């Protein structure tokens, strides 16, 4: 009897845990959901993960206004494998609970959104690895890569504004200052 009770508790716990992961994703602002989706697509195309991955939690997230309705997004988060295969479309959390025999996948993504769409320029940066293998040095490199991407784009915007309005224009200086 106690084995059956333990099995029942573990099954219910797995379903609740998987449902919480789905609820966590659903509660993310759309701008961060886009990054989670980018990472899952990246892992599906280039990774060797045979299982469907669900969002678990955000570790760090920031959005920087670029002006003119654009935003640069940095999002560091964890994904976890479920019992369903990676080709499962919109898996039911009750049917696809989290696997407890797999480590978390830690992802960091940087991208620009404009009018709610991920822009191709600058090209989004997506990197994911099994969490136990992500060192502080790697985490710092990821963040530095995103910072460089944002700085390059800001410098490009600043140059365009200076070309449009003239190098000494106060309008160009005002807009360039709002990019930093």
The CATH architecture category equals Roll
How many structural units, i.e. domains? 1
Shape: elongated
DSSP strand tally: 5
User: What ranges have pLDDT less than 50 throughout 5 or more consecutive residues?
Assistant: 1-19, 169-173, 175-180
**What is the class in the CATH system?**
Alpha Beta
Give the SSE order as H and E letters. HHEEEEEHH
How many helices in DSSP terms? 4
What is the mean pLDDT? 79
> Main beta sheet, described?
5 strands, antiparallel
Assess the beta-strand content as a share of residues.
Answer: 25-35%
Q: What is the percent of helical residues?
A: 40-55%
Cα end-to-end separation: 64 Å
Organism: Conger conger
Keywords: Chemotaxis, Differentiation, Disulfide bond, Inflammatory response, Secreted, Signal
InterPro entries: Chemerin, Cystatin_sf
Protein name: Retinoic acid receptor responder protein 2
Keywords:
Nuclear Transport Factor 2, Chain: A, 28% strand, disordered N terminus, disordered C terminus, disulfide bond, signal
Please provide a brief summary of the model:
One of its GO terms (molecular function) is signaling receptor binding. This protein is of the alpha+beta class and 180 residues long. 46% of the residues lie in helices and 28% in strands.
What does this structure look like?
The chain is α+β, with helices and mostly antiparallel strands and 180 residues long. It has one domain (2-134): Nuclear Transport Factor 2, Chain: A, CATH 3.10.450. Helix content is 46%, strand content 28%. The protein is built from 4 helices and 5 strands; from the N terminus they run ααβββββαα. The protein has helices at 2-27, 30-46, 136-165, 170-179; strands spanning 51-67, 70-85, 105-114, 117-118, 125-130. Strands 1, 2, 3, 4 and 5 form a 5-stranded antiparallel beta sheet that branches. A hairpin with a 2-residue loop joins strand 3 (105-114) and strand 4 (117-118). The protein starts with a helix and ends with a helix. The model is unreliable at 1-19, 169-173 and 175-180 (pLDDT under 50).
